[in-house]
């Protein structure tokens, strides 16, 4: 079974940018090839230039390449079936939101802004031929213990990033999820009011 023979483009109800309709979140990552450092840098640069409230840029990332102790620590913090596949990704990125500024003032929009940064990272990576899968199933207290993490930075998620792999390396259950049709609720259900 190969994802290259499976149509993964979203069937949108109205036209969107091709890169957006083509972007998807695989679980099958190529487990041997190192990350292309230029493409990784571009993805992180896209995140850096995403919008944020008052330009506070309340996101931080810990970037861990496969084969390093840091990658193993992030992989060990994953929960559930994420542990079955995510460690194959060339890079695991722990994502943090700055919940308060240096003076202790709250930043209630930090998680929203982090989400925008990760979305920019995801689209840039896909544009460059890499794939991203975001995970919320993670032991956040273990991520908070990673080097360089200050108390004001709340661990939110982990991002697997790398080249697309062979789905046959996954368990049967995950293979089925890998090739299942992409679905979303309708636009009418998403927009609850419009005037």
Keywords, separated by commas or semicolons:
Nitroreductase, disordered N terminus, four-stranded antiparallel β-sheet, 4 strands, 195 residues, NADH Oxidase, alpha+beta, Nitroreductase-like, 8 helices, oxidoreductase
Describe this entry's structure for a reader.
Residues 21-81 form the Nitroreductase domain. Keywords: Oxidoreductase. Belongs to the nitroreductase family. The structure is a single chain. The protein is of the alpha+beta class. The protein has a domain at 33-164: NADH Oxidase, CATH 3.40.109.10. It contains 8 helices and 4 strands; from the N terminus they run ααβααβαβαβαα. It has helices at 18-22, 37-48, 69-77, 82-85, 110-127, 140-144, 172-179, 187-190; strands at 59-65, 91-98, 131-135, 153-162. The protein has a 4-stranded antiparallel β-sheet with strand order 1-2-4-3. α2 (37-48) packs antiparallel against α5 (110-127). The chain is globular, with a radius of gyration of 17 Å.
